[in-house]
Amino acid sequence: MTKVLVTGAAGFLGSHVTKELLEKGCHVIAVDNYSTGKEQNLSGLHRHERFTHLVYDVSDPSVIGLEELRGVEQIFHLASPASPKFYQAAPMETIAVNTIGTRHMLEVAKRNQAKLLFSSTSEAYGDPEVHPQSEAYRGNVNTWGPRACYDEAKRLGEVFCYEYHHRFQVEAKVVRIFNTYSAGLRNDDGRVISNFVTQAINGDDITVYGDGSQTRSFCYVDDNVRALQLVMEKDEATGEIINIGNPAEYAILEVAQMVKRLAESDSVITYMPLPQDDPKVRRPVIDKAKRLLGWEPHIDLEEGLRRTIQSYRNRLVAN
């Protein structure tokens, strides 16, 4: 039985990974300090005999010596606020979990000769001047702005992974995750899909920032989780940075119109000023993921939005 540590296990992505690992027969050590994760994301798992839950901050150095982490074979380091709404409200904590917390997890990996996957971000590319973005692109980033606490902390987390891999032979793997969504994304998350769907089904104005011409690429969470599992399993991914995302690119206004249509909503699309340092374009090159993992996404945006809209509606009825 494989013993796996998942940090940020109560978060959007972490909870999906945790459930998939339990289904595969793993023993999962789930760590979360509930800064942005929600306990309900792990509801029903506490009675599972292969599930251990620790309320802990991985930025605390005592995490390295926890008895429960002894013998872990795989580490999915997913802990971090990911929405601008949350990381801009907690910048110091965001910096800490992605830098100090990452080093702590690498120390745990080193002590246990475990594999470690670090969830970095497409935000490492900043507001890109090269389009689409491959892993070789070094980015166009701003260290002096409201997004820097997330972008730059993730970039330094990657550096820690590089050093531990080259100095100590830790089997570190880095994934740069592009926009991910699904029915499980909290409706107060503040990211574009959750905002649009919540506004559309409530009949509120659908808020587009800027003129809506900026683009994003959206990957449904099932495709993302499948990719993360492949990264962990494949030796070819060790010591690599790999883009994980859907290369289909959409203008934000186009997404707003699609959500309005699929939700059969009477909402009006309105416009607000574009936030500082908001990237104008974003689309991953996934050739490396195809080559090393044999992976590409299967769920297109329209299908993913249908699932998300239905789930949000069901949740409103239940509440």
From TrEMBL:
> What compartments host this protein?
Golgi apparatus membrane; Golgi apparatus, Golgi stack membrane
Protein name according to UniProt: SDR family NAD(P)-dependent oxidoreductase
Q: Give a GO molecular function annotation for the protein.
A: NAD+ binding
Domain NAD-dependent epimerase/dehydratase residue range list? 4-245
Which species does the entry assign this protein to?
Answer: Paenibacillus piri
Cofactor(s) for this UniProt protein: NAD(+)
Share an example GO biological-process annotation for this protein. UDP-D-xylose biosynthetic process
**Cross-referenced InterPro entries, in alphabetical order?**
Epimerase_deHydtase, NAD(P)-bd_dom_sf, UXS-like
* Entry-linked PANTHER family: UDP-GLUCURONIC ACID DECARBOXYLASE 1 (PTHR43078:SF6), UDP-GLUCURONIC ACID DECARBOXYLASE-RELATED (PTHR43078)
The protein's topology relative to the membrane is: Single-pass type II membrane protein
A GO CC annotation given for this chain: cytoplasm
**Record keywords: Transmembrane helix included?**
yes
Give the signal peptide, or none: none
Keywords for the protein's UniProt record, in alphabetical order: Decarboxylase, Glycoprotein, Golgi apparatus, Lyase, Membrane, NAD, Signal-anchor, Transmembrane, Transmembrane helix
Identify the main location: Golgi
